[in-house]
Amino acid sequence: MSKGQSAGIDGGQCAQPAGHDEWLWTRPAAAAQATLILAHGAGAPMDSEFMTQMAQLLAARGVAVLRFEFDYMAARRLDGKKRPPNPQVKLLEKWRGVYAQVRQQVAGPVAIGGKSMGGRMASLLADELGADALVCLGYPFYAVGKADKPRVAHLAELQTPTLIVQGERDALGDRQTVAGYPLSRAITLHWLASGDHDLKPLKRSGFSHEQHMQAAADCVAGFLSR
């Protein structure tokens, strides 16, 4: 099946080019109000439970979601061998290529973003690419245990309208720590009570993971409809 062809998957549509360029489309039943290119995190593929559920929830809210894989993850799919992420320059190169192709194929607003690392890479390119919006789910403000070494310099200058949905107890960016960062006015932070890096709350919070995923999807869809 060549790029641009589609088959049903997860209640939406799946574009399945051969080899490392495989994409997964999850589209709403009616016309999409926006398209979101959603990149995976460092350790899980584009069809992980989190990525699949979020794509389905967003499609149900009128957002078309395209998922793709960075080269190291696509290679793991072929031989089963775990690999570390590609160097940042390669990750950004992949993002540029995917965005350029989607822009040629899609009419209407195109947002970029992703889970954890995928969202961080998108944030480094959002202004350069001229994306209509940026959406990050569980942003890695710093590496685990390294809150004293934040990776936020570019976030202070970001011009692209940005939504970051973050768990309050995220080990890569908790609410108290992030509150001290000088972030751009273009960034909207939406905090989920007691949520971790996967937006999963503690039981004592009174919220379920499903509720937080639904709330995140509501927030993203609302943000992209503006």
From TrEMBL:
InterPro entries: AB_hydrolase_fold, KANL3/Tex30_Abhydrolase, NSL3/Tex30
DNA-binding is among the record's keywords: no
Molecular-function annotations in GO: hydrolase activity
Cross-referenced Pfam families: Abhydrolase_11
Taxonomic superkingdom: Bacteria
Domain KANL3/Tex30 alpha/beta hydrolase-like: 33-224
Record key words, sorted: Hydrolase
Keyword Hydrolase found: yes
Full protein name: Alpha/beta hydrolase
Native species: Pseudomonas aestuarii
